[in-house]
Design goal:
Length: 125
């Protein structure tokens, strides 16, 4: 199974970015951890719809599972429509999150756990 972890940097020791749509990178690997690939998130700098852009990028890359901290309803809808499993509550490093997933310690989500934002969504109430 091909999985993607939202990350603040492009290494296995990078911290997990809790923001799905606006994370800087994704660490992508298979469950057997043969090889890691790090991609910049094209949705990170989107003016709006970051979660949707980000989710579509992962669909296009044929990711089957996402590990992240929080995800909004629009991104969740895109991923669910594509049959991609989403695990939320991820924290620590990419390596630690991967191990938590392998050991069944992350929560499989069926609903979003972040609210949608207008525009950049930063600093707004």
């Amino acid at each position: 199974m091909k999985l993607a972890i939202s990350a603040e940097g492009n290494s296995i020791e990078a911290r997990v970015d809790p923001r799905f749509g606006r994370c800087e990178y994704f660490a992508i690997t298979s469950e057997d951890k043969q090889q890691w690939e790090y991609i910049s998130n094209p949705g990170a700098s989107a003016g709006g719809g970051a979660g949707i852009h980000t989710a579509q990028e992962l669909v296009n890359r044929k990711v089957e599972c996402v590990l992240t901290g929080r995800i909004g309803p629009n991104a969740m809808a895109v991923l669910q429509a594509a049959g991609i499993k989403v695990y939320t509550g991820a924290s620590g490093t990419v390596r630690e999150t991967f191990e938590q997933y392998k050991n069944g310690l992350l929560t499989l989500s069926t609903t979003a756990n972040a609210v949608p934002h207008e525009g950049m969504g930063r600093g707004r109430k």
